[in-house]
Design brief:
Blueprint (H helix, E strand, L loop, with lengths): L10 H27 L2 H8 L2 H34 L5 H13 L2 H11 L3 H8 L9 H26 L2 H9 L4 H29 L3 H6 L10 H10 L3 H26 L9
Helix pairs in contact: 2-12, 3-7, 3-9, 4-7, 7-9, 8-9, 9-12, 11-12
Length: 271
Amino acid sequence: MPAVAGPRVHWVSVVTVGFLALFLASIAALVAADLWFTDAASMAKVLASPEVRHAVRLTLLTSVCTLVLVVVFSIPVGYALSRYRFPGSVVLDAMVDLPIVMPPVILGVSLLVFFRTPVGRWIESVEWLQFVYTVKGIVLCQFFLTASLGIRAAKAAFDAADRRLEDLALTLGCTHGQALRMVALPMARGGLAAGAVMAWARAVGVFGPLLVFVGAVPFKTQVMPTVVYLEVSIGQIEPALAVAMLMLAMAMVTLVLLHWFGAGRRQWWLP
């Protein structure tokens, strides 16, 4: 591709790069303020407390369970939305995306109301299916808030995969299942992995619906976001900040993985 004629520095580049620098400086200032307010010894002391360690373990456990559910649902649903046409597809797409734009606390209220209906009461009557104020309820909230991200990422990944190669595999004797497994999934694996990472990161940070639907009982249903909220609510900034910094580190690792998958596993230092 020939080089573009004209100066490399012009008003468009100056303005856009200036906005980029301003935004990056704002993010760096927030992180620097967090680091300035605390120190490694204080963070280690907070993170060593039994209550916080239990919240961290519960967050990791529930978010991993949610990730498995999201992957199980997002691949077939994303494939169906990408490859097939349904009556009222615009409405279906909107319903899939609804949890993304829905205020999270509304989900918690909706789940609480659902489990007060006859169907919900019947589900709660089964001992191993109880969700209200239980760990399984945490996974349920995380799943409903993150599944749309996984499904949308899966659909985009399958959209980007060349369908003609699947058709070619069918003409060569593959079944539809074999074409999906051996052709479509390998082509879409980068987008699927990126969607899974994004869904897991969202699951770790779920807060609003958990407070409504499962509460924040220490050593039972308290997870990392609710620890931050409860500590701040009683004026304990340092414990809240220690947990917040741990979540920030997890988010940073997640974003690196997300961009790594999205960039086709290229070296992270390359533009």
